[in-house]
Amino acid sequence: MTWKTLEYSGWGRVLTARGDVARPERASALAKLVSSSPAPAIGMRRSYGDAGLNDGGKAIDMTRMDRVLEFDAETGVLHVEAGAQIGELLRIFAPKGWLPPVMPGTGFATVGGAIAMDVHGKNHHGLGSFGCHVVDLTLMTAKGPKLASPKKNATLFKATVGGLGQTGPIVSARVQMLKAKGDVMVVTERRIGGWDEFLKYLDASDATYTVGWIDATAKDEHLGRGILEEAETGGGLVAAAKRGKRIPMDAPGFTLSPSVVRTFNAAYWRRVPARGRTVVKPIDDFFFPLDKVHDWNRLYGKSGFHQFQCVVPINAAGDLREMLASIANSGLASPLAVLKRMGPGRAGYMSFPMEGYTLAVDFPNRDQAEVLIKELEAQTVKSGGRVYLAKDGLSGPERIRDMYPEHKQWLKVVQSTDPDQKYATDLIRRLKLREPT
Amino acid sequence: MSQTWIILGGTSTIARTFARMASERGEGVILAGRDMDDLTATAADCAARGAPIAESIKFDARDAKTFSPIIERAAELEGEISVAVFVGSMPPQDEIDDDPSLIAGTVTDSFTGPAEFLTTIAPELEKRASGTIVGVGSVAGDRGRLGNYVYGASKAGFHAYLSGLRNRLGRSGVHVVTVKPGTVDTAMTWGLDKLPFLAPPEKVSKDIFKAVDRKRDVIYTPIIWWPVMTIIRMIPERIFKKMQI
What we know:
Helix content of chain A: 25-40%
Structural class of chain B: alpha/beta
Distance between the termini of chain B: 46 Å
Largest sheet of chain A: 8 strands, antiparallel
Largest sheet of chain B: 7 strands, parallel
Number of strands of chain B: 7
Number of helices of chain A: 13
Order of helices and strands of chain B: EHEHEHEHHEHEHEHH
Distance between the termini of chain A: 41 Å
Oligomer: heterodimer
Shape of chain A: globular
Radius of gyration of chain A: 21 Å
Number of strands of chain A: 21
CATH superfamily of chain B: NAD(P)-binding Rossmann-like Domain
Strand content of chain A: 25-35%
CATH topology of chain B: Rossmann fold
Number of helices of chain B: 9
Shape of chain B: globular
Number of domains of chain A: 3
């Protein structure tokens, strides 16, 4: 059978869709689907909102097309099918001394998803987004496979990278892998007392991988306290992280109540000694700490959660501080909050990154959280920043065009490759991204 | 000693996961099937995962002419040769009821084709006095039932064949494993409703390697199918004939 009717959701589990899903295993099967009933491609559905949903329509699940097609051990160029997971590539290639160039916070993300969202990782300040390392990519079109790269079909390439799947399913991509010293991480953890200190350390960090965990419940003189992690790859022998624990059921609502989160965060902050420390970690433990617990999104209970992630330009750091203050004062945040300095690297018209600071905070799905997120969004636009569409589930059409100035160029390419909007998703419709201004 | 798997039905979902696991164990794979583009892609994947030999070759259960090039290639290999059979076809029973000529093809794909291949290659394994033959059957072969009894009959035949082959090859140090999977989450079952105990293909492959390493004769995978089928086999025919399962 080709189609299966499924009920599926984004990672945040607030938004869901119902529709027929195909799951091709071969390029020939995908070609047949695209010519007979084109539908948006979906992967592991790690986007939080509705970027991977097509309610009432069809979708093509790419996760079984996950093979390594070629690896050049001299140059490090990897040709891989779009359904391959970043964490799996890390597992296969790290022992050989090569890493995926950019790794998002979860190893379950697929290569196709990493391109369609132009994801960033802990090395964004130095190496840019995932799309910056894509040598070329192959799209499946009704007329067969079509290659796009920064040189060949360059506008199609820029509309595909970060393009939310609107140019059609990606079959495979050639990715420039990154040479690594070994498959362990040497991580320096530093306790940060407050906001100004955090920015100072983030600005000064010259580590390859830098990320800040922030206590989004700490107020007043503690506002912006957290832990800065700076890391490099290294050689050595450490046991691989134990993976595969599961959350067996949806947690009850009080699991992440404000007082629990405050207590947890304070303890988590104190875990790192005041003078800091350097530890050695298995590589996947550093890049994908949450993957150790499968289905951790169930901790938020049945009603799910939202993540708010924005980036603002360097000169708007003060605005970001105010946004963090309103988050802290609301008491709505969960323990998962991240602050990072971003570099300018981005590869598509609709790519999220810009040079500046990015803040990501999870909120259990409650009415007040929705109100707060909308306020944060309004502030983001005012500050000249943008929200990340891979995370968004709440924004409206009126704000998005201000945040993404190259939307027009993207729309032009997308409308010519997919005039009938066969690849539109719930996110595209909610934000009216395929409609001319 | 180096070990190479000849994998018949190399494009099937379970075969793909099996070939990956073999590669990560440092074993070679020769992928045999009909869709050469797909086999070539899987071979590349296996090479990246550590397979010292990763090749693709034509195999069609309904065309015995495709058998000898595979057997000739096997004869050239050094070390231990093993064979894993993942071929089979399962047209819906109602289509067979409308067109009984489909029966011959189903039996060839699921039983006589692979049996002919195995009988032809057996002397090569006997000569080397080592290696394993993995034959993937099905729980459907344990009892003929309304929903798919032609497929079930083919697999039942294949089970009996494997049992005899084990009896023969065991004498020269070649081991035969009969694998009876239940419903597996593959391209073949995608979209079928109400599949009990649906297993991921990786789980089945893992169980197969466990059986190979421990020299088990017959396994059910996942293991839940062993008690389930034990009960189903015990139901008297005069009751079973009235049941819908």
